[in-house]
Design a protein that fits this description.
mainly beta, Jelly Rolls, 2 domains, six-stranded antiparallel beta sheet, 22 strands, about 15% helix, binds fe (ii) ion
């Protein structure tokens, strides 16, 4: 399954005409994967959604046991998230973590709509059942810190510098893994593919979701051939043979449950011809 940012953005803009953050705590559009026996998830362990916040809006503070993170897509200055009192800016390409049981709320004090992609391990927590959720009943979180660096914030400018420094693999693909020791269930990576480069064809027992942050390309997955552009999201269920090829300079964000599979000795990977 693939979801196009252009479709998501249009739907959220329409929703923005009707639904306020007062009515809906979060204005988000869930990427339900209708292939197979899924009931609401994007892949077996992860759910994704596009989310939009309009200028002047405030998405109330809450906390939950599922781990969550955001990949910022678009928005002017003034869009930010507060995590346990820490104010973290949201600039296009930035990744922000809101780990298990951390209070989080979102704000837009700018002039343009803010759009991002949410990733959560909700389906896994749902399966195992330790699901807890708490609201702060509308009280804004007091901001106690506005750091220039934080373990829960990965600015895109730093990501791009690290990608440029990363040693390319045999296929010429540069990859980095974000340092997220607070997450035990999901692992985050960025991949840079120069024009014409392709990943090796492989399959793994890990389930992943890819989101494009720059460029365009093609994903071949099973019998599908999917053309992606910036902001599009691709579900890669476990054991699907796949390869990604860049048409022009492309960057992909990957959210995978590989760390979980590895830690319970269920990770298997195969290179395919
Ligand atoms: Fe949340």
């Amino acid at each position: 399954m693939m979801w196009r940012y252009a479709d998501g953005k249009l739907a959220l803009d329409r929703a923005g005409d009707w639904i306020s953050t007062e009515l809906a705590e979060r204005r988000n559009l869930v990427m339900y994967n209708s292939v197979g026996d899924n009931d609401y998830n994007t892949v077996k362990t992860i759910i994704c959604a596009y989310q939009m916040i309009k200028p002047g809006e405030y998405a109330k503070s809450h906390r939950h046991t599922p781990n969550a993170l955001r990949l910022m897509l678009d928005g002017g200055a003034g869009v930010y998230t507060v995590v346990n009192g820490v104010k973290l800016p949201m600039i296009a390409g930035d990744v922000l973590l809101t780990p298990n049981w951390c209070w989080h709320s979102h704000y837009n004090e700018g002039k343009e709509n803010g759009y991002w992609i949410d990733f959560l391990d909700v389906p896994l927590v749902h399966l195992l059942e330790p699901m807890f959720f708490e609201q702060d009943h509308g009280k804004p979180q007091p901001v106690t810190e506005e750091p220039l660096k934080h373990d829960f914030w990965f600015p895109y400018a730093s990501t791009q510098q690290e990608l440029a420094r990363a040693k390319p693999d045999a296929q010429g693909v540069r990859s980095i893994t974000l340092s997220t020791p607070v997450f035990k269930t999901i692992e985050l990576r960025f991949h840079h593919l120069a024009a014409g480069k392709a990943t090796r064809k492989r399959r793994t027992t890990a389930s992943s979701v890819f989101a494009c942050t720059a460029g365009e390309g093609t994903v071949r997955a099973g019998n599908e051939r999917l053309e992606f552009a910036r902001g599009d999201v691709i579900a890669m269920p476990a054991w699907t043979p796949f390869a990604i090829e860049a048409r022009n300079d492309a960057v992909l964000f990957e959210c995978t449950d590989e760390i979980l599979l590895r830690n319970i000795d269920l990770l298997r990977e195969e290179d395919l011809a």
